[in-house]
Specification:
This protein has 674 residues and is of the alpha+beta class. It folds into 5 domains: 3-66, Orthogonal Bundle (Helix Hairpins); 88-318, 2-Layer Sandwich (D-amino Acid Aminotransferase, Chain A, domain 1), CATH 3.30.470.30; 323-398, OB fold (Dihydrolipoamide Acetyltransferase, E2P), CATH 2.40.50.140; 436-586, 5' to 3' exonuclease, C-terminal subdomain (DNA polymerase, domain 1, Orthogonal Bundle); 605-672, Rossmann fold. α1 packs antiparallel against α2 (37-53). The two termini are 51 Å apart.
């Protein structure tokens, strides 16, 4: 290898790195791309090829270092010596003045205290660790003391410098907020809607969710995020003596900081700063939910100290919730998974806090009575926490004559069964096991690992069974045969046979699992085991009264009433009897064990992509691992098979480029059971 070739490679790597980083910033941060995606990909591949020949010449800020494999089995934890504390809140100007009086009293000062005001960005808090100037570890806030290691995802965020620009301590811990700008939020939602995917609810959730992606990482979303630094936990330069100097130093190192920060000479200046931020919040390109004020001088911060959960020298001044008035056009009832009847107000659509609101939960009858909410009322609405639609109050001066108080129905709006309310709950419930509104979730619950553990009975398949009318009640699941299953869209004979065999195996269970499978409100795996230990057989449990149930350790009044109400319903008793007739059986006190699977996939490495019929990717992963295979999250030369479902994405393209064998769901079943 000649020195000339090496020098040329070094220059080319330097030029391509600089050019690619510039184009990435133009696309993701400034929304003004200069080249096409195809041209960017061509330059990226060119850089990757040169770096592979000269790996020692790869620069620390190379865009190729931002793309790495995500953790395969969840995120490791990061424990901090200095916790990320919460902030005390001020809800109005008087509480801000009380904060000022408190810090001046603690400092024994009559003169004003200079505060640094910063917009309170509405995102996800993270900490970045730099060692010898290079980004090493990034973690979520977690519980303050322990966070999740999300370094691989954070490396994709272009506003996080991979190398600090300028001298720094050997170890620096930078803290800040990850946000999704509104421009990027709208762009990503447009793309999702075009693909038929659900839109993100708000930028904060989209940002926090992006950081915790494990499989099929959405790199476009990650690169659209921005990191704004606001503090240091470790590595403060000696010459920096206040928050203003720190923010300036963070800028020098290459970080974005909170936009619009400013010094406030006293608390009245701080209040005016906050009012200005609140007035302009709708015009900004990002979401803020208040202002943060910190004592500017670090010497005074140290004198004030910290409480166990929050510093004495900082406070968050929250904005007032944005409110509007609208009219309740109707009230309808939603039936949830556990049969809970939830009243929902249908509103005349109104724009509140950047979102159009058309529905708002009324929670329960007690809440309706307390606020005296009626159909036709004019109401004040807001987004609780700037997220959840909420009816604040009724404008009774605008109430028309003739309106009546609203009462929840005495029968289920879905199935017509009587509804019940326990003495200790505000919730009204339908306890009919055949209720169509509950059927889907009850079947999924029955198929879950804590119940009958029916392998292959996933969400999509359950939806198909219900929509085709093959299942109208819980017991219908065990009436299905291979022919009925094969009639479903894209369900082959092999898959139908495997599911039928799984249904047959699941009939042999334990008493506790059977109780759990019934989906009785408040009865989970643990309670089901307590009941199974107490009662010798099913008939004794069915006949149990409240007194005998509440005398059992671990069974309170609410659970006892749920059990009693369930078995008092004639439809439920008929369904329980039918399940027994169809072969559900158990041996007293014996926990059934799955027979070990043949290790037909031992030593094979699989990658999953896309969506599959009748089974989730998590269930497929378990299916492969039980047979000795290994499932990884990214395609590499070591991958043996890519299992591709619908909408496979970029993993399919990469597999084809590497010559990796691509198989479908049916092919996988044949591999596992040749």
């Amino acid at each position: 290898m000649s020195k000339t070739n090496r020098r040329q490679a070094q220059k080319k790597i330097r030029d391509l790195t600089k050019e690619l980083n510039r184009h990435a910033r133009l696309y993701y941060l400034e929304d003004s791309p200069e080249i096409s995606d195809a041209e960017y990909d061509r330059l990226f591949r060119e850089l990757l090829a040169i770096e592979s020949r000269f790996p020692d010449l790869c620069l620390n800020d190379s865009p190729t270092l931002r793309v790495g494999a995500s953790p395969e089995n969840g995120f490791d934890t990061v424990r901090r010596q200095i916790p990320m504390l919460s902030l005390d809140n001020a809800k109005n100007a008087d509480e801000m003045r009380s904060f000022d009086e408190r810090i001046r009293r603690n400092l024994d000062r009559d003169s004003s205290i200079t505060l640094m005001g910063e917009p309170k960005l509405d995102g996800a808090g993270v900490e970045l660790i730099y060692v010898e100037g290079s980004f090493e570890i990034g973690s979520t806030r977690g519980d303050g003391r322990v966070g999740e290691n999300v370094t691989s995802n954070l490396r994709n965020i272009l506003s996080i410098p991979l190398v600090l620009d300028g001298p720094a301590s050997s170890r620096v811990a930078v803290r800040g907020e990850v946000i999704l700008p509104l421009r990027a939020f709208n762009r990503l939602n447009s793309i999702r809607e075009e693909k038929g995917q659900d839109a993100f609810v708000n930028p904060r959730n989209a940002a926090a969710g992006a950081l915790r992606m494990l499989n099929d990482v959405d790199r476009d979303r990650l690169r659209s995020l921005e990191f704004h630094a606001y503090g240091l936990a470790e590595g403060l330069p000696e010459q920096i003596i206040d928050q203003q100097g720190l923010l300036e130093q963070l800028n020098v190192w290459g970080f974005k900081t909170s936009p619009g920060y400013a010094l406030c000479k006293n608390v009245e200046d701080a209040i005016q700063y906050h009012k200005a931020r609140e007035k302009e919040r709708g015009e900004l390109g990002y979401e803020i939910d208040g202002s943060v004020f910190k004592v500017n001088e670090f010497r005074l911060q140290r004198d004030l100290g910290e409480l166990s959960r929050m510093p004495r020298w900082a406070i968050a001044f929250k904005f007032q919730p944005q409110q509007e008035t609208t009219i309740i056009e109707d009230i309808f009832v939603s039936v949830g998974r556990t049969g809970a009847l939830t009243p929902v107000a249908r509103l005349r659509p109104v724009f509140v806090g950047g979102v159009t609101i058309s529905n708002a939960s009324l929670h329960n009858q007690d809440e309706i009575d307390r606020k005296d909410v009626r159909i036709g009322d004019t109401v004040v609405v807001q987004r609780a926490g700037d997220v959840i639609p909420q009816i604040v109050s009724v404008v009774k001066a605008k109430r028309e004559k003739g309106t009546t108080r609203y009462k929840l129905p005495t029968s289920c709006p879905s199935c017509g069964s009587d509804v019940v309310r326990s003495d200790e709950e505000a919730v009204v419930r339908c306890v009919n096991i055949e209720c169509s509104a509950q059927l889907r979730n009850n079947i999924l619950h029955l198929a879950g690992r804590a119940a009958l553990d029916i392998e292959g009975l996933g969400e999509k398949l359950v939806d198909q069974l219900i929509s085709k009318g093959l299942v109208t009640k819980l017991s219908d699941v065990f009436v299905l045969d291979v022919d009925a299953l094969e009639s479903l869209p894209r369900m082959g004979r092999k898959s139908a046979g495997n599911l039928f065999a799984s249904l047959s195996r699941s009939k042999k269970t334990t008493f506790a699992r059977f109780i759990s499978s019934l989906g009785i409100s408040d009865v989970g795996e643990g309670v089901a085991q307590i009941l199974a230990n107490k009662f010798e057989d099913l008939s004794l449990l069915i006949d149990a009264d409240l007194d005998s149930l509440t005398q059992i350790d671990g069974i309170g009044q609410t659970i006892a009433e749920s059990v009693r109400n369930f078995f008092r319903n004639p439809r439920n008793l008929k369904e329980v009897e039918k399940l027994r007739e169809l072969g559900i059986r158990w041996e007293e006190g014996v926990e059934t064990q799955k027979s070990p699977k043949k290790q037909t996939l031992k030593g094979q490495i699989f990658v999953l992509t896309g969506s599959f019929d009748g089974i989730s990717r998590g269930e497929l992963k378990v299916f492969i691992e039980e047979r000795g295979g290994k499932v990884t999250s990214s395609v590499s030369k070591k991958t043996d098979f890519l299992v591709a479902g619908d909408s496979p994405g970029q993993k399919l393209k990469k597999s084809e480029e590497l010559g990796i064998k691509v198989v479908g769901q049916e092919d996988l079943l044949l591999l596992a059971d040749p």
